[in-house]
Design a protein that fits this description.
Strand order of the largest sheet: 3-2-1-4-6-5-7
Low-confidence stretches: none
Radius of gyration: 17 Å
Oligomer: single chain
Distance between the termini: 31 Å
Number of helices: 8
Order of helices and strands: EHEHEHEHEHEHHEH
Bound molecules: guanosine-5'-triphosphate, magnesium ion
Mean pLDDT: 92
């Protein structure tokens, strides 16, 4: 099975080396670091460690993931992982297992199921993610607990979803379109730690409120858009 790992980065020089070093090399076919305009040496560190570095000057987490997906070389499975060492890359086998065993199309690493590390996810971020996950359960019938970034998908079905969000909405769009397409979405518990380096989005209350509001509106909008187009509701 060919596994491509895609890591979006913007100024993650303090963390990227540990992220890459901890990835189990026997399980990965290629590691793609999609870097946007880092000025702290992130792409150079990644390249020195053997990753394929793709430059993407257009900002946005989703844009970086889309660019990584387009650059991946005939993968069977694509894995998405943040470059700030908040997830544990050594847990890749847990993320891959449901797909390898043929019982999932998408695996989501949940930071909020299982044992979580106190304080790793600030209360406002836990609340926002639980709220969004609850709304997805209500509107899409998909029971999940979190919208975490560490995840994997069968490449063929992921490409078929036609993802297009270029911001943080990309991660939720994958779940929404996956649920509407009745894909098998399976959650596995993963551990989570405070990021290395400066928080860019969700570390602040203001950042979380803005991101959560945007994500909640996407959840409603995608549901409504599909229904108006006459697509049947998922069971
Ligand atoms: N290529 C690219 N990567 C980005 C961009 N914005 C964020 N990233 C990376 O995407 C990953 C997730 O971003 P984070 O800043 O960790 O977002 P977060 O986890 O919601 O919030 P914090 O960890 O609190 O900053 C990290 O590896 C970032 O370096 C971007 O515009 N382009
Ligand atoms: Mg982060």
């Amino acid at each position: 099975m060919r596994v491509s790992v895609i890591i979006p980065t913007h100024n993650e020089a303090g963390a990227i080396e540990r992220v890459l070093a901890d990835l189990p090399s026997d399980l990965t076919t290629e590691i793609i670091v999609v870097d946007s305009n880092s000025n702290d040496g992130t792409p150079e560190i990644a390249a020195n460690m053997g990753a394929l570095v793709v430059r993407e000057p257009r900002r946005g987490y989703g844009q970086a993931c889309l660019t990584g997906l387009a650059a991946a070389n005939s993968p069977d499975v694509v894995v998405f992982l943040d470059g700030d060492y908040s997830d544990r890359p050594s847990e890749l086998p847990m993320i891959l297992a449901p797909i390898v065993e043929g019982r999932a199309d998408i695996t989501l690493g949940s930071r909020l199921s299982g044992q979580s590390n106190p304080g790793a996810l600030p209360w406002h971020q836990s609340f926002g993610n639980r709220l969004a996950a609850g709304l997805i359960g209500l509107l899409y019938g998909l029971k999940i607990s979190d919208l975490g970034p560490f995840r994997a998908a069968r490449a063929e079905v992921l490409r078929g979803l036609g993802l297009e969000e270029t911001t943080y909405g990309w991660a939720v769009e994958m779940i929404l379109k996956g649920a509407l397409a009745e894909l098998r979405v399976v959650e596995v518990p993963v551990s989570y730690y405070s990021r290395i380096g400066k928080s860019k989005i969700s570390g602040t209350l203001k950042g979380t409120v803005g991101a959560t509001w945007f994500i909640l509106s996407l959840i409603v909008r995608y549901r409504f858009r599909r229904r108006r187009a006459g697509t049947p509701r998922p069971a």
